[in-house]
Automatic annotation (TrEMBL):
Pfam families for this protein: Aminotran_3
GO terms of molecular function: pyridoxal phosphate binding; transaminase activity
Database matches in SUPFAM superfamilies: PLP-dependent transferases
Species per Swiss-Prot/TrEMBL record: Candidatus Entotheonella gemina
Lineage top rank: taxon: Bacteria
Family statement drawn from the similarity comment of this UniProt entry: Belongs to the class-III pyridoxal-phosphate-dependent aminotransferase family.
Species lineage: Bacteria, Pseudomonadati, Nitrospinota/Tectimicrobiota group, Candidatus Tectimicrobiota, Candidatus Entotheonellia
Protein name listed in UniProt: Glutamate-1-semialdehyde 2,1-aminomutase
Keywords: Pyridoxal phosphate
Cofactor(s) essential for the protein: pyridoxal 5'-phosphate
Length: 445
C-alpha cells in the first residue's frame, strides 16, 4: 500500500510543479511561512463556502479559512457583492471617505471599550502601533509579552514567539521581557522594573489558543496587575476579535483593556487591521497644529491602504453580518459538533490525544491527554509542545490533505458559519481515516 507521502505526491502532482516554479522566485519557494507543507504545499485555484479547489481539481474542506479571516466562509454573497461594487467605484480614493466612518462605527458598536479607532493594513502593523502608543503614553521603554505568544513579525514581537530572530537587534531584544503565563510572575516583573510601558497578551493563549490561558481569570488578573503598576494593557484580538464572541474575547469575558489590536475578521477577508482603545492614548496620534507636538511628540502613523474603500466595505459587511445574522452562533455550533466528533474518533481509534477549544477554534493534541473539560485545555505548555512537534503536525496536515481536508498548521480547525453538519461529519470521517493512516506508519500509536 502506498505511503501517505506517496499518495500526497500523486494527488497534488500539479501543485508540485507550481512549487518548483516558485522556488526560483520566492525565498523558500513560498510567500508566507505557514503556507509551507512538507514536501510542498497544495496550490489553490478558487474557493466557495467551506471548500477550496486546487490546481489538480481536488475539492478540499477548508479549515485554514484565510488564516482565520473568513468567519463566514469563502465568498459570502453580501461581502462579495460589496467588494465588487466598490471596485467599480474606486479602490483607492486618495482621501477621507464615508466608508471609513461607517466602518469604524460598526467596529466600536461591537467592541464598546474602543473610544477611538485607527485602521492599519495588517495584524503586525496593529501590534506595532499599539506598542508605540504605549511607550509614548507612559514615557517608558520596555514591553512584557508572554512566552510563545505571537503578535506578528516585527522586531518587538519576535522574542520567544516561535519564530526566528534573524535581523532583530540585541538592543530591541533587551527591551522585550518575556514572562510565563503566570500573573504573579508578570506582577513581579512590573514591580522590579519601573521602565515597562505595556503588557501584551494573545487573549486565548499562545498561537491562537494552542496553549490555552486559564480564562477569564488570567485576563482579569492581567487587567488588575497592569492597572496597579500604570502599564498599558493590550489585548491582542487579531485572531480572537469578533470570533470568540461578536465583540471578541473582551466582550466574552467582560474585560476592558487599554488598547486592542485587530485584523483578520475585522477586514472581511481583505488586507486590513485596526487599533482601538482609550481616547487619551489614541489621541496621541492627533495633529494639533502645534509644530513641536506634531513634529516631535506625536505618534505618527501612515499607511497608504489604511481603510481603503474595498477593505472598508468588506469589513463593514462582515461586521454587520456578525452583529445581526447569528454568524458566531452557527460557527460555534459546528465547531462543537466537530470537537465532539474528533474526540469520539480518538476513543474509537484508541489513540492518545484529544480535541479542545472554544467558540469556533478547535485544536488537536496527539500523543498526550488530560482530564480537561475540552474547552480550555489545562495541560501544561511543555506537554503540549512535546506531544505536537513540527514533524507530527506536518504529518497530520499531509494525511488530512490526502483525505481532502486542510487544517490550520496541522493542528487546528478554524470553523466558519459556512460549514454545515454534512461537512463536519465528512471532516470527522477524514480525521478517522487519517489516524488510521498515521497509525499504519507508526507516526501515532
Amino acid at each position: 500500500m502506498a505511503t501517505i507521502a506517496e499518495r500526497y505526491a500523486q494527488k497534488f502532482a500539479t501543485s508540485m510543479a507550481w512549487y518548483e516554479r516558485g522556488q526560483s522566485l520566492f525565498a523558500g519557494g513560498i510567500t508566507h511561512q505557514t503556507r509551507f507543507t512538507s514536501p510542498f504545499p497544495a496550490y489553490i485555484e478558487h474557493a466557495e463556502g467551506p471548500y477550496k479547489y486546487d490546481v489538480d481539481g481536488n475539492r478540499i474542506i477548508d479549515y485554514v479559512m484565510g488564516n482565520g479571516c473568513l468567519l463566514m466562509g469563502h465568498n459570502p454573497p453580501e461581502i462579495a457583492e460589496a467588494v465588487a461594487a466598490q471596485a467599480h467605484r474606486g479602490t483607492h480614493l486618495g482621501g477621507a471617505t464615508t466608508h471609513e466612518v461607517r466602518y469604524a462605527e460598526v467596529v466600536k458598536r461591537l467592541m464598546p471599550s474602543l473610544e477611538r479607532v485607527r485602521f492599519t493594513c495588517s495584524g503586525t502593523e496593529s501590534t506595532y502601533l499599539a506598542l508605540r502608543l504605549a511607550r509614548a503614553y507612559t514615557g517608558k521603554t520596555k514591553l512584557v509579552k508572554l512566552h510563545e505568544h505571537y503578535h506578528g513579525w516585527h522586531d518587538y514581537a519576535a522574542p520567544e514567539s516561535g519564530q526566528g530572530l534573524g535581523g532583530v537587534p540585541q538592543v530591541i531584544r533587551d527591551e522585550v521581557l518575556v514572562a510565563p503565563a503566570d500573573a504573579a510572575a508578570v506582577d513581579r516583573m512590573l514591580t522590579d522594573d519601573n521602565d515597562i510601558a505595556a503588557v501584551i497578551v494573545e487573549c486565548n493563549g499562545a498561537h491562537y489558543g494552542t496553549y490555552p490561558l486559564p480564562n477569564p481569570k488570567f485576563l482579569q488578573d492581567m487587567r488588575e496587575v497592569t492597572a496597579g503598576h500604570g502599564a498599558v494593557f493590550i489585548m491582542d484580538e487579531v485572531v480572537t476579535g469578533f470570533r470568540l464572541s461578536p465583540g471578541g474575547a473582551q466582550v466574552r469575558w467582560g474585560i476592558e483593556p487599554d488598547l486592542s489590536t485587530m485584523a483578520k475578521i475585522v477586514a472581511g477577508g481583505q488586507p486590513g487591521g485596526a487599533v482601538g482603545g482609550r481616547a487619551d492614548i489614541m489621541e496621541l496620534m492627533a495633529l494639533r497644529d502645534d509644530p513641536e507636538w506634531d513634529a516631535v511628540h506625536r505618534v505618527s502613523q501612515g499607511g497608504t491602504f489604511n481603510a481603503q474603500p474595498v477593505t472598508a466595505v468588506a469589513g463593514t459587511a462582515m461586521l454587520e453580518a456578525i452583529a445581526n445574522q447569528g454568524v458566531n452562533a452557527r460557527a460555534d455550533a459546528m465547531a462543537q459538533r466537530l470537537k465532539e466528533g474528533l474526540n469520539e474518533v480518538f476513543k474509537q481509534q484508541a489513540v492518545t490525544g484529544h480535541a479542545h477549544g472554544i467558540a469556533s477554534i478547535i485544536h488537536v493534541t496527539l500523543g498526550a491527554d488530560c482530564d480537561c473539560d475540552r474547552d480550555l485545555c489545562s495541560m501544561p505548555y511543555d506537554e503540549i509542545a512535546a506531544a505536537m512537534p513540527l514533524s507530527k503536525t506536518r504529518a497530520l496536515r499531509r494525511a488530512m490533505l490526502v483525505n481532502n481536508v486542510d487544517m490550520m498548521g496541522g493542528r487546528a480547525f478554524l470553523v466558519s458559519s459556512a460549514h454545515d453538519e454534512e461537512v463536519i461529519d465528512q471532516t470527522v470521517a477524514a480525521f478517522s481515516q487519517s489516524l488510521k493512516d498515521l497509525k499504519a506508519e507508526r507516526i501515532v500509536v
